[in-house]
Amino acid sequence: MRIEAKFDREKIWYRGDSVRHLVLRVTDPGAPRPSGPVSLNIALVVDASGSMTGKPLEFAIDSAQRVINALSDQDYLSVVSFNSEVTDHVVSEKMTPVGRARALQSLGNIQANGQTNLSAGWLRGAEHVAQGMESGRPSQHRVIILSDGHANEGIVDPASLATHAEQLALRGLFTSSVGIGDDYNSQTLEAIAVHGGGTHHRAARPHEIVEVVTAELQDIRLTTAENITITIQHAPGARLKCLNEFPLNHEDDQYVCSLGSLAAAASRTAIFSIKFPAGEVGAKFPFEIRSTWRRPGAEDVYSSEPLSLNAEFAEGKDNNAQSYDQSLTAAVAQVWQAHIVRRIVRLNREGRYAEAIKRLDHDLPLFSKYAKNAVSGPILIDELKRLRDVASREWSEGSRKEVEVAMYKRNSSRLDARSVKPWGFRGMSISIPK
Length: 434
Fold this sequence. Notes:
six-stranded mixed β-sheet; single chain; Rossmann fold; 17 strands; alpha/beta; Immunoglobulin-like; 11 helices; seven-stranded mixed β-sheet
């Protein structure tokens, strides 16, 4: 695993409160997998609540059928459906021809009705995968949730679900989620996926369920590094925030950030906003960064060599005179803008329009002052200005979801798996809701 890290500007004002951005890039150069094939140990968890009646459930089952047919004889599959109750359709079934036929037949028993006990369905699927983990066979362990509804029974608090997901990920059991339609609770499903070391997908139309689940299966097979964590140690007094919204835990003068999984030759960029304390002119403010990860199917934890870098306290004139690194500034501006936009989407969903305007009025001058130093800055600034023009009224939930997911994909260095990109995603830019 290769780590690169650099500050957008290295000098900080000696009187304190300077904000700098640490741009950290992790790349897996494609180290070989453990000897022999690594099987998949997967649970598909299908929402069978009443709101899935008709096409949504039909296409979710179609997706499950495609996953079953794509698995090899060495893979294991569990299928669980949930509404108010949880139903096991197949449990740790080896995907031999006989097992595959049994799994396909079981899908016909999934019927839509009742409420949405998402937590019970998800944790049951995780339980089946965990049982497979105890066998000791080299495998990649994943739960994939397909849901269109708001969790209204069982555990419904996103923070509590995120904690459960994080604990499962620490054991090497990862969770991805597919939000179906416009009515799913994005906060809940994204929290499970982000803290669960997986990926959150949106499937606005029924046929997109098939696309994103098929892409998710391919991503799992291509994974070469799992449970990637970044530890940042620093001198006392600094405060860090991850603009990408990756899970970040803080203890004393150390932050630990979880970046999920990576495929061979893939990379992920994490950007941290750091507020510095005061210090003596010319003194260094040291950081040490290291990463850990695991290879699929293996229990060994690998560690990188520590990477050291420093910020330097300076007088005002020297601090103000330093130039911006164009490439780093552009990376920061993209992620910072996405961070702002996602916050405005959440405020709009909650009907807090005046607060959204106030938030943008605070953020826009700060962002503009910084982003003007990036090539893409004028475009990003203009987008936020146009966002402010419409922030005082309600947007459709479909608009919110598309913008929200586009910003999530940008921040987590992931591509949208849907073949036809909706209006909310224009490369690395956004379209403002009408």
